[in-house]
Amino acid sequence: MSHRAFDELVRDVPDRVRLSPRTAWAEARRRRRRRRGAVLVAAVAVAVGAAAGFRALGDTSHVEPAPSPGATFVRADRVGSHWEVLRSNGTRLTLDPQIDFTGPTLGISPDGRWLSYALGPEEGSLLDLYVLRSDETEVVRAPEVAATYGDQHLWSPDGRVVLVPVADGDFNIVDTEGDVLVHDYVPGATAGFTDDDSLGWVRSEGRRGDQGLTWMETTTTMAEERSLSLEVDRATLNPDGWAQLMVRQAVLSPDRSRVATLLTDHRDRGWLLVFDLEDGALLDRRDATGVDRYCPLRWDAGDVVGTPQGEPCVVVPR
User: Fold this and answer.
1) What is the rounded CA–CA span in Å between residue 265 and residue 246?
2) Which of 23, 190, 284, 297 could form a disulfide with 251 if both were Cys (CB 3.0 to 4.6 A apart)?
3) Collapsing DSSP states into helix, strand and coil, what is residue 95?
């Protein structure tokens, strides 16, 4: 989809693009309208306990009560062609993305209160975006967003907005009412929100991507706040004279003091590198050949973890 076509698709978005986050939120709050309803009759189901099975949200023959107050989303697992999302009270939500792709099309807010996800149509790479609160069963649709598959959605620390990859390598920042606050380009691999109003990125340098890596911090409207050269040279990035390197993923540590990045070449060889974000020092470098480039990296017990190829993807609050 061209930028022109996308802009026509979201023709009422530009008046909210490039506003400051707080101004944008205020503007969206004045305009927001609830888009709740049973729009996912066949695609979304809720299970209460293993014996209860899965039940469609929009099926009027049996209406599930809302999950217990205070329930949160704790993880999502790829099971066959579906995603199963577990709540803290044991209830489960199953999602059928309606696409034949194993990469993530969803994200869970850091506090576990919000889930964003994208669903089919079966053919085509543009998906519909939905947002759901953990203690509710009604969803909010974001009609102005044409999401893409294969990328995890990234939530702000306060759970107020989510970054969603869209057409042409751009991204939208969307609030929990489905309103688009920002539409802009992606300058590198998105590592996540550094705070409620700022984003972190890892960008490769050089024509072949092997001249170095740069850490960037920007506002949500892409005003640069900080740039740091990560301490890794060409010999470390490309010890065997590989072809062009690609930064597949980047992920911030929970305390936002480190960033891990996954790089691969066209032969699917890869490296996982971890950097200190205070001075850019290289803290770890390991062989990541065999790590699924599409399943999101995650931090577990202070270390970054990738999913081996052939194993189900896991998405955790981030």
Assistant:
1) 6
2) 297
3) strand
Cα–Cα distance measured from residue 172 to residue 151, given in angstroms and rounded to the nearest whole number? 13
- Low pLDDT (below 70) residues in the chain: 1-66, 99-103, 121-125, 149-150, 208-210, 238-243
Q: Which residue range forms the structural domain that includes residue 22?
A: 1-186
Element (H or E) spanning 30, and its range? helix 21-31
| Domain C-terminal end among 166, 186, 206 | 186
Report the alpha-carbon distance of residue 106 to residue 168 in Å, rounded: 19
Verify that 169 and 237 share a domain, yes or no: no
Cα 106 to Cα 116, 165, 309, distances in angstroms: 5, 10, 19
Residues 21 and 58 placed together within one structural domain of the fold:
yes
CA distance 208 to 212: 10
Alpha-carbon torsion 266, 125, 128, 6, what sign? positive
Burial class for 61, CB neighbours closer than 10 Å (0-12, 13-18, 19+): exposed
Q: Which two three-digit tokens encode residue 257?
A: 């003091």
pTM for the model stands at 0.77
Q: What's the mean pLDDT when you consider all of the chain?
A: 77
Token pair of 84 as six digits? 């199963």
* Sheet (strand 258-264) strand order: 246-252, 258-264, 270-276, 282-287
| Helix locations, 181-286, DSSP H | 234-237
Closest C-alpha among 270, 267, 272, 278 to residue 299: 272
Q: Would you say residue 8 lies in a domain?
A: yes
- % the chain with pLDDT above 90: 43
Q: How far apart are the C-alpha atoms of 252 and 56, rounded to whole Å?
A: 36
